[in-house]
Write a structure and sequence with these properties.
Length: 505
């Protein structure tokens, strides 16, 4: 017998084996147990999440002579006949290749025939979004009022392309992505049955590579089983996925965060010469930076990352040397680079520019930050300090309520986490000094934080949350860091862009 791929061999045959879709399984099994089967269903969701498998199981279950808790028994005469690929009562139609109006008209003519084995004749139309407009129109009336012995199940990955007239006639079920834990549990059972050993980290890497798709994860697992010599190791999975060697990623990010531009260019050249895709490399670096951020921000990072102990130890040590704001900025740059690579004429140059931007001590960035700080001081009525003058001599006499400021900011932090922005949430968590002054909540921020918060979208979000929690306005106050004063900032700006280009009012 020809070899059967793992994802086909272990395709679920009952609802009990359909993982990650408990909300759908419960609804469908209850309908079967209560004999309240609808006439038209729409299954939508990402590829490989179980839409077609659920349709086949449901088709057999509603025809089963002895269903068990809504599941087909797979033993009765009806089940044995319907599980065959040539049965006449479960008709699967590929919407991509049978999308013309003539084929749908033929389907309309066939729905009048009674089922040969069970109670229902089930039509499963896969990739239904590929039908033409005329085909949809031909299907409408039959879909709305089919004969009592006919059930339609439409499956699609792009529900937005299905006309509203079709959607309104169907009972819709949205299939969600399957969690890493559920995929890992499924694959561990399969490997145990196959007699293949594995490491926990390797299986986790396969599950992550599946990106929520059971079929994709099992396809990767199939390749790993064929590649490995009796045991699947973490390194084997990386090779199968074409991912960059972890040692090279550590080497490259070490040069990036160490500011060694020559080392960056040399390492990128070595990786590219080895045949690695620049797009994959960019993704690997972005994931590595994200993992560093997890090490810095989370109390139990290993539970999230699930990496081999030696790699996790190196990652933690590397993350400890970096500032959170630097990691956030780098992650933003590499995420942007991933998008830019899709349209780049020379992807390698685009990626190298992103690496160098993070690695280099960019004077232009310094200038921009200093210009923003001076502009901020000007807008708020501050003036450069005279020689020998101390900041305390010009401090405003407004009262500062630090206790109230901390109480309000604690509420705002909870709201920020609900905004689903990891960058903004992490940056807000780094602020440690705030107070209420008059009708304003004042946040003391450094230059990097000011640059992030002063962006229109972030500023509007924070100002809205502060207003909602306290009724106060939001004000950002640049604080001195490392002993630097406003006078020092202006002097540095004067040094960078020249005396003739600096005008301070």
């Amino acid at each position: 017998m020809a070899y059967l791929a793992i994802y086909r061999k272990y395709r679920p045959t009952t609802f009990d084996k359909l993982i990650g879709q408990e909300h759908i399984v419960r609804t469908l099994t209850n309908q079967i147990k209560n004999d309240k089967v609808g006439h038209a269903y729409l299954f939508t969701g990402t590829r490989g999440t179980g839409k077609t498998s659920a349709a086949r199981i449901f088709a057999r279950a509603i025809n089963c002579l002895r269903p068990k808790d809504g599941n087909p028994c797979n033993e009765c005469e009806a089940c044995r006949e319907l599980i065959k690929s040539n049965n006449m009562d479960i008709i699967e139609i590929d919407g991509a290749s049978n999308n013309r109006v003539d084929e749908i008209r033929e389907l309309r003519e066939r729905v009048g025939y009674l089922p040969s084995v069970g109670k229902y004749k089930v039509y499963i139309i896969d990739e239904v979004h590929m039908l033409t407009d005329s085909a949809y129109n031909a299907l409408l009336k039959t879909l709305e009022e089919p004969p009592s012995h006919v059930v339609f199940i439409l499956c699609t990955t792009e529900v937005q392309k299905v006309p509203a007239t079709i959607l309104s006639r169907c009972m819709r079920f949205d299939f969600k992505l399957v969690s890493v834990d559920a995929l890992t549990e499924l694959m561990s059972g399969i490997l145990a049955e196959l007699g293949v050993e594995y490491t926990k980290e390797a299986l986790n890497a396969v599950a992550v590579a599946g990106e929520g798709s059971v079929r994709d994860a099992l396809s990767v697992l199939d390749r790993c089983v064929a590649f490995a010599d009796g045991k699947i190791e973490y390194g084997d999975v990386l090779q199968i996925l074409g991912a960059t060697d972890k040692n090279k990623i550590f080497e490259l990010t070490g040069y990036i965060f160490g500011g060694d531009t020559a080392g960056v260019l040399k390492t990128v050249d070595e990786i590219c010469r080895s045949g690695k895709s620049v797009s994959v490399l960019a993704k690997d670096v972005a994931v590595h930076v994200r993992d560093m951020l997890v090490c810095r921000q989370c109390s139990e990072p290993q539970k999230i990352l699930n990496l081999p102990e030696d790699i996790f130890a190196r990652l933690s040590a590397q993350a400890e040397k970096q500032d959170t704001e630097k990691l956030l900025s780098a992650l933003e740059d590499f995420n942007k680079a991933e998008v830019d690579l899709k349209y780049a004429i020379d992807p390698r140059v685009t990626f190298e520019v992103a690496c160098l931007r993070v690695a280099a001590d960019d004077s232009d960035d310094k200038i921009k930050q200093l210009q923003k700080r001076v502009a901020y001081l000007e807008r708020h009525g501050a003036v450069p300090l005279a020689d020998g003058q101390k900041k305390n001599d010009v401090t405003q006499a407004k009262s500062k309520d630090f206790a109230q400021g901390r109480a309000i900011w604690a509420k705002v932090l909870k709201d920020v986490r609900g905004e689903d922005s990891m960058v903004l949430s992490a940056a807000c968590a780094e602020i440690d000094n705030m107070y209420v002054s008059g009708d304003e909540l004042v946040l003391e921020v450094n230059g990097t934080q000011y640059s992030l918060f002063s962006r229109t979208a972030n500023l509007e979000t924070l100002a809205g949350l502060v207003k909602g929690e306290s009724g106060l306005k939001l004000r950002l106050d640049l604080k001195e860091t490392g002993g630097s004063s406003v006078d020092d900032d202006i002097k540095e700006l004067r040094h960078l862009i020249g005396e003739e280009n600096l005008k301070v009012k």
